[in-house]
Amino acid sequence: MSTELTRKVERTLEMVDRVNRSLDERGGEVRAQRRRERQRVNRALGRRLATVGVAVGVISVITIIVGLLQPIGILGFLAAVGVAIGIAALLFFWPGENATPTVPKDVGNAEMVQRFDSFLYKTRRALPAPAQTVVDGISAQLGTLKATLERVDPLDPDAQDARRLMSVHLPGLVERYVHVPPAYRGEPDVEGLTVDQRLVEGLGAAKSALGEVSERLAKRDMDAFQTQGRFIQSRYGEPGSPA
């Protein structure tokens, strides 16, 4: 009887934990991540529909031109329709950029931030709760980081640091964590830390590094603004006014 009661209590606690997790994910940063991901999916769908429309339009124009030069008959018309439908289906159902969570290395700074945000959203559920909290903090920083990075050359040293973190180091950390069997994630290593704790530490270090890059880039903009303001004041200010 005691064992059965214990099992009921455990099931109740698990259900409460699931409900609390669901309520937490309806608001805050997770809700913002979901909204941004939905916007990215809608934009990708719009681009795909536009590509399908262009392909069908090209086939229609070619069919009309051929029909003007030489009658194609009903069979030719049906063949053209079949080709258009086949190409449209191929373009529409071809796996796109959101097929697997990844962060490509050969895109611009702003696009990389968006892909990285999508990666965090898609892999978040595979991580333990403490790591999810850190991931939410990283995602909250990405708006400011994107605003500064999109004006910086990809070869800029600070941009390179951020790009390596977003496309190589942090995705690699998450990928290696997922490959560890769940039964071994709670075992301490030689330093007394579990795999889950190492993950939280690594994510925290990445969060701090991205925050430092964003701060340095913002500081550059502030310095440039102040320099420009001092120049205008010294060049066009009234005599006797403070420079």
Would you give an account of this structure?
The chain contains seven helices and no strands. The protein is an all-alpha fold and 243 residues long. The N and C termini lie far apart (84 Å). It has helices at 2-25, 28-69, 73-93, 109-123, 129-149, 157-179, 195-236. It is 77% helix and 0% strand.
Which structural category fits the helices and strands?
mainly alpha
Overall morphology: flat
Number of strands: 0
Order of helices and strands: HHHHHHH
Total of helices: 7
The whole-angstrom Rg is 27 Å
**Largest sheet composition:** none
Helix content: over 70%
Kindly, what is the distance between the CA atoms of the first and last residues, rounded to a whole number of angstroms? Answer: 84 Å
The overall pLDDT average reads 78
Features:
single chain, 243 residues
Protein topology:
Layout: H1 2-25, H2 28-69, H3 73-93, H4 109-123, H5 129-149, H6 157-179, H7 195-236
Summarize, please.
By secondary structure, the protein is an all-alpha fold. It has helices spanning 2-25, 28-69, 73-93, 109-123, 129-149, 157-179, 195-236.
